[in-house]
Amino acid sequence: MPASDAQFIAEARYYEKRPNRKIKCVLCPRECVIDDRERGYCGVRENRRGTYYTLVHSRVCTAHVDPVEKKPFFHFLPGSRAFSLATAGCNVNCKMCQNWEISQSRPEQVESAYLPPRQVVELARRNQCASIAYTYSEPVVFFEFMADTAEAGRAAGVRSLVVSGGYIKPEPLKELCRKVDAIKIDLKAFSEKFYKEIVNGELKPVLDALVAIRTQGVWLEIVCLVVPTLNDSEREFLGLAKWVKANLGVDVPVHFSRFHPEYLLKNLPLTPLPTLERAKAISDAEGLHYVYVGNVPGHPAEKTYCPGCKRVVVEREAYWVKAVNLTRGRCRFCQQPVAGVWS
Amino acid sequence: MQFSRRSFARFGIAGLLPPVRGAPLASDRPRVVVARARGAVKIEDLLDRAMQSFFSASSPLDAWRRIVRPGETVGLKVNCLAGKGGSTSPALVEVICGRLQQAGIRRQDIIVWDRLSEDLESAGFRISRSGDRIQVMGNEILGYENELSVYGSAGSRLARTLTRLCDAVINLPLLKDHGIVGVTMALKNMFGAIHNPNKYHPNAGDPYIADVNMIPAIRSKVRLTICEAVRAQYEGGPTFMPQWTWPFNGLLVAQDPVALDTVGWRIIEEKRAQERLPSLRQAGRAPNYIATAADPAHRLGVDDPRRIERVEA
Prior knowledge:
The complex is a heterodimer of chains A (343) and B (313). Chain A is α/β, with parallel strands linked by helices and 343 residues long. Helix content of chain A is 25%, strand content 24%. Chain A has eight helices and 21 strands. In chain A, the strands form six sheets. Chain A has an eight-stranded mixed beta sheet with strand order 8-9-11-12-13-14-15-16. In chain A, strand 11 (131-134), helix 3 and strand 12 (159-164) form a beta-alpha-beta unit. Chain A is globular, with a radius of gyration of 20 Å. Chain B has a single domain (23-312), classed as Rossmann fold, CATH 3.40.50. In chain B, strands 1, 2, 3, 4, 7, 8, 9, 10, 11 and 12 form a ten-stranded mixed beta sheet that branches. The radius of gyration of chain B is 19 Å and the shape is globular. Chain B starts with a helix and ends with a strand.
């Protein structure tokens, strides 16, 4: 595929023009200043004679129909399907990335198909998907495509879900929150050190983004991938739980997921199950209502328990929902409201 | 005269083939030749003078024979991101191709390459992959290896042009300022051999640039750097900004990329001072990656000017 296939190129949003044909990207906190003919850190946005372009509008390198639980969203239309897609590129470079072949590549280095927003919506509907999920790589870097598709989806009654690292500036995030229905943030750790050394990013802007999403009323879930020796201390789990409780509230689901050795961290083992269970126990003790253990199929902490009567309100096994004991968002047994988007 | 298999092998290797300086080992006192034209630049004369001087050779051809061997495939890693005027010139490449052929390299075994074919075309090269012509191609034609090559902070997929075609690489950067990493010359030009250079510009490229050059397929194949400095750029790079170029009328030649970058950096700083611009350190973009490339963990070359033999030719 030619590197500069015109059908995928659209002027980028969120950048500033600078003298001498330079531009400054203000989509993400990295704020790359980019010379003519160069690209930003993400590798998918390019300066051409002083105008900044996205190279990945409608340039889909992977698309699947997934259960929404796979994202994971556990409190958003359980048992529904999400038409899930990605383009190449990412604005960080996590050493544990599970999808580095696409996230750490430039668009011309991966096979892609032209899939404009209306066609994405049509495919979602044809596959009985209640939502479109922007996932796998980092949707912030294909912001324009995501925003246009979410608009087209909303017009057709198909919802939009974002699976992101949350490394985004406040203004574009505000726009995104107006257009999508739920956001899952990968909170990679609760330390700046980890963000600097392992993620190649910063923690603070991600925490700011979490608060902004919650403030704007978009459904929010958090995933923490627990990496042995790097972000698995009890102190860190406790700090995280306290922060979530104080800044987001106890109703935001938190998933502690098992790490698989990948990409640049192949030297580390799988996360031991007791570590994940300890993270959950600490968060439960802090009073968070919905704390899950992820990537461990069959674990009891895959289920949603009513915060009132403690009975199972959503029964899951791996990505499959076996029973939903909710009526209009309330526990069927004790009528306690259960936070989420259930219909 | 009769040979046993063993003696033939020994004679064949040690006696019949000319000695070739393969991947250069960091020398204690590396040489950097700075060849400059006094009047109008005749690129062929300049190159011959630089090569002969660098190798203390009896003739230009003698110099080239020390760097390549008949039967090898030789890659010329040009730098074409900045288009015409700001890229390795086809004129220099043409002269090098001529000398390589005189040294016994077949035309079709010479590969002029860079990251993208469209960059090569924008610099005035014509893409060519067929017949017995010199090959000219961007990395997208063969793609990148699926496996990651990892060293330190760098984890990259290497261009198959480098890994599968080239036995040796001659690095052909420019003498140029760089708005993020300070200067772009020998070490930085190897970003064109990897799939993800955009990931390695933070912290003015330190230690990423040094780490990328440590990847074995890069370190072992680059045999020589010829840095084009006919028009050099002291500000506004890597984009071609003619108002910040000056006629240096020269070429820099070295086998030690760290030494070459050290000398080149000094030339750019001298010009910046002359133009009353702040030093790169004052501008917040000192190319510290050069010192990293010389440190005990990398040993890619020498960055101490007192230990570099700078030869004006």
